[in-house]
């Protein structure tokens, strides 16, 4: 047993080789603590690094995986499902480190302080959906760790626009504020309002091109958000393989809740569903307007499929 523990310590202490850009990546492993310190020295705006180590041997560390988006693509569901794996330690809230200037200005020490305590065998995961569509974020993530593994969950762009609108609409309702109808935000001067932010967020190929300037496609795993909703287990299996996790999540961890109309989770006898704000019904929309959306996204979708070398069952 002592020999095994000594071997584990030596393995963790081995130096981590970080390739230069453009990247030809060897087999990646979670960065060791010494590499974490080096990353801090190179990229932190505040270099007075202090490790937060718990008495049980766990510690806070930089994430080895980030769910970068997309907003209303199913990021919360993905994180909750992935958290079923014992070797995943997930940050509870969206950190917004790389896209909010005031947070980024605090440096990587602040970023580490937002992470959960994790053991050496665990992968720390952070989720901030706005990263995917924020122009500055890819370079900033690259500067932190160019060999990081990224998760991106996408769904039909038109459906994502409607979900985006629905969230903002209900946020206004909860604050007892008025908000325009879906037709009012989607139509401007009789034409589709392409300046509407929700439409821009669904132009996946534009944002993906920005990420591919810094990361090879092999470091960005795209989760099919539409399939994750309908049949989550096969999609989560793919994520496990991408993160090089042992297969611990199985089909019995998921069950369909007829009342809510979507899959919920079962873990060690406990059952839980996503927050009631998830899975809200979209507003009724004129079929002609929906056709306009589908038509508008046809060419951007084709460009995205070509960019990533795979297709999705979108309109």
Automatic annotation (TrEMBL):
Positions of the catalytic residues: 72
Pfam families for the chain: Sulfotransfer_1
GO CC annotation: Golgi lumen
Entry EC number(s): 2.8.2.-
Catalytic activity line of the entry: alpha-D-glucosaminyl-[heparan sulfate](n) + 3'-phosphoadenylyl sulfate = 3-sulfo-alpha-D-glucosaminyl-[heparan sulfate](n) + adenosine 3',5'-bisphosphate + H(+)
EC class: transferase
Function description: Sulfotransferase that utilizes 3'-phospho-5'-adenylyl sulfate (PAPS) to catalyze the transfer of a sulfo group to position 3 of glucosamine residues in heparan. Catalyzes the rate limiting step in the biosynthesis of heparan sulfate (HSact). This modification is a crucial step in the biosynthesis of anticoagulant heparan sulfate as it completes the structure of the antithrombin pentasaccharide binding site.
Protein name: Sulfotransferase
Record organism: Crocodylus porosus
């Amino acid at each position: 047993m002592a020999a095994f523990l000594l071997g584990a310590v030596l393995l963790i202490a081995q130096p981590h080789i970080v390739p230069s850009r453009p990247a030809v990546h060897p087999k990646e492993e979670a960065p060791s603590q010494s590499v974490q310190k080096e990353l801090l020295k190179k990229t932190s705006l505040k270099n007075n690094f202090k490790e937060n180590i718990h008495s049980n041997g766990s510690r806070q560390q930089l994430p080895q995986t980030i769910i970068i988006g997309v907003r209303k693509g199913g990021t919360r569901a993905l994180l909750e499902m992935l958290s079923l794996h014992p070797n995943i330690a997930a940050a509870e809230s969206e950190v917004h480190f790389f896209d909010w200037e005031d947070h980024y200005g605090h440096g990587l020490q602040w970023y580490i302080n937002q992470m959960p305590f994790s053991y050496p065998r665990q992968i720390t995961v952070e989720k901030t959906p706005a990263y995917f569509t924020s122009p500055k974020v890819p370079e900033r993530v690259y500067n932190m760790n160019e060999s990081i593994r990224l998760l991106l969950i996408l769904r039909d762009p038109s459906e994502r626009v409607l979900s985006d609108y629905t969230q903002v609409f209900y946020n206004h309702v909860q604050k007892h504020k008025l908000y325009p109808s879906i037709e009012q935000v989607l139509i401007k001067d009789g034409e589709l309002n392409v300046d509407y932010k929700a439409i821009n967020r669904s132009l996946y190929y534009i944002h993906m091109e920005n990420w591919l300037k810094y990361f090879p496609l092999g470091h960005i795993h795209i989760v099919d958000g539409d399939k994750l909703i309908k049949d989550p287990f096969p999609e989560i299996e793919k994520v496990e393989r991408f993160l090089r996790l042992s297969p611990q999540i199985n089909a019995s961890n998921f069950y369909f809740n007829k009342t809510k109309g979507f899959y919920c989770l079962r873990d060690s006898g406990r059952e839980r569903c996503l927050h009631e704000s998830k899975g809200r019904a979209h507003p009724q929309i004129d079929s002609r307007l929906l056709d306009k959306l589908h038509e508008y996204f046809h060419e951007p979708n084709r460009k995205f499929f070509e960019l990533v070398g795979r297709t999705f069952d979108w309109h």
